[in-house]
Write a structure and sequence with these properties.
Strand content: under 5%
Number of domains: 2
Radius of gyration: 24 Å
Number of strands: 0
Order of helices and strands: HHH
Number of helices: 3
Distance between the termini: 42 Å
């Protein structure tokens, strides 16, 4: 009974996911058509939003260009964990 329930929930998810994704893409490209509100409520990004975006993007780009810095922090711990499993 549990497998049937899990399969049913997964099937519902597989049906709802494309519906949600396609409606999101439609709203992104063509706008939100349910209300005819003017776009005066949307403002450009200010210095605060720009600072937050740069604070998030710089580490992501840095780790993408030079991932060895992050990997070098955990090499010893990973080797210790792996040695427990493979070198007994």
């Amino acid at each position: 009974m549990t497998k049937v329930l899990i399969t049913f929930v997964m099937a519902i998810g597989m049906i709802l996911t494309p519906i949600y994704s396609l409606s999101m893409l439609r709203q992104m490209f063509y706008g939100y058509k349910l209300f005819n509100a003017p776009n005066s409520y949307f403002f450009d990004s200010g210095p605060r939003e720009l600072f937050i975006s740069i604070s998030i993007l710089l580490p992501v780009i840095g780790i993408g260009i030079y991932p060895d810095f992050v990997f070098s922090l955990s090499v010893d711990k990973v080797e210790a964990i792996i040695s427990n499993f493979f070198y007994r």
